[in-house]
């Protein structure tokens, strides 16, 4: 297969959250291969370092790794401000990080609820807040919020995660309305069941694969690069009149 190269992404300054592994690592790699200047926030240092070792093509700007936990908003605000002071304003924000830990209704405490919302929803707002003044200075920008098909198809076993993911689509629509006048576009990228290392290790059993065959229209599995390629398009000038929308990449499941 042959995929697009976007001239508008060349040298674009792209911030990815949770970029050390899974779909986030695909975002980092795909933007890097487009010639973008990529920076990513990640709490897993080992994963981030091994990704960086892989991305060392001559003539390309190596991504910048910022080691931080997205649950700590004050730290995140400081880390983004420091980075922008040195490397310039951000053009594209991919709010990717999340964690789909399963939980039972009875076992959820107030602390656990708050922690899951902090991990799956809160940082998307505050990362956006941190980069918007720079996007305004640059004359516009693109924010890509990574949602999930899970709440749309009614998956159980993780109601806080699905509530947060539904909330992301509301956040997108509210921010798109508020930021459109400044040339900033905000969209939700909705993945289906994506074959990351973590999903393959934890959940993709033979039964899981049979479920995919039953539910998707397309037979092939959805891979992390399939999600990242939609982020490329949403970040590029090619999608210049798209904002406040949800773009689903799920092989036709939902
Ligand atoms: N994989 C799927 O099937 C699937 C389906 C629907 C939606 N999604 C969404 O796609 C996005 C990426 O998912 P994934 O499957 O690649 O997840 P993953 O768990 O494989 O990777 C998430 C990355 O984010 C990092 N991260 C998590 N919490 C962090 C924190 N507090 N601070 C800093 N870094 C943190 C992790 O260390 C990891 O590198 C998420 O928003 C997820 O909800 C994934």
Overview of the structural elements:
The protein is of the alpha/beta class. The protein has a single domain, classed as NAD(P)-binding Rossmann-like Domain (Rossmann fold, 3-Layer(aba) Sandwich), CATH 3.40.50.720. 45% of the residues lie in helices and 15% in strands. The chain is built from eight helices and seven strands, in the order βαβαβαβαβαβαααβ. The protein has a seven-stranded parallel β-sheet, with helices on both faces. α3 packs parallel to α4 and α4 runs parallel beside α5. The longest helix has 29 residues. The mean pLDDT is 97. Bound molecules: nicotinamide-adenine-dinucleotide. The site of nicotinamide-adenine-dinucleotide has 29 residues, from α1, β2 and α6.
In short:
Helix content is 45%, strand content 15%.
Q: Number of helical segments?
A: 8
State the total count of DSSP E strands.
7
Which CATH class is shown? Alpha Beta
Q: Name the helix and strand elements from N-terminus to C-terminus, one letter apiece.
A: EHEHEHEHEHEHHHE
Give the strand content. 5-15%
Which small-molecule ligands are present, each listed once? nicotinamide-adenine-dinucleotide
Which strand order spans the largest sheet, edge to edge or round the barrel? 3-2-1-4-5-6-7
Shape: globular
Biggest β-sheet strands, sense, barrel: 7 strands, parallel
Low-confidence stretches: none
Annotated CATH architecture:
3-Layer(aba) Sandwich
Label the structural class.
alpha/beta
Estimate percent helicity: 40-55%
Overall average pLDDT: 97
Instruction: From the alpha carbons, calculate the radius of gyration and give it in angstroms.
Output: 17 Å
- Stated plainly, the CATH topology is called Rossmann fold
